[in-house]
Amino acid sequence: MIIEDIRSKTDSELDFDLKKIKKDLFGLRIRAAAETLANSAQIRDLRRSIARINTVLHERATGIRGQSSL
Q1: In terms of Cα–Cα distance, which of 1, 4, 41, 47 is closest to 24?
Q2: Which of 14, 40, 42, 70 has the highest CB neighbour count under 10 A?
């Protein structure tokens, strides 16, 4: 995910996306343990997406950078 896309979403949308990405990551980890993955970089990309979403949610919670009210 691109950071601009993440910042344009509301908190509830980010929570939904976070749960979905964590579920996808769990599935990839299970598949990686059972068999070989065609693209193992997907795990890294999902982990980074989770970190980006968590960062934006934390910024909003602490008031560092809020969502624009346009």
Answers
A1: 47
A2: 14
User: Scanning the structure block, which residue is given the tokens 């299970």?
Assistant: 30
Residues 66, 60 contacting (CB under 8 angstroms): yes
CATH number corresponding to 3-62? 1.10.287.310
* Global confidence as pTM: 0.86
Instruction: Report the distance separating Cα 35 and Cα 30, nearest Å.
Output: 9
CA distance 25 to 53: 14
Q: What is the C-alpha separation between 9 and 56, in angstroms, rounded?
A: 10
Let me know: does 54 contact 15? Beta carbons within 8 Å: no
> What's the distance, Cα to Cα, between the start and end of the chain in Å?
22
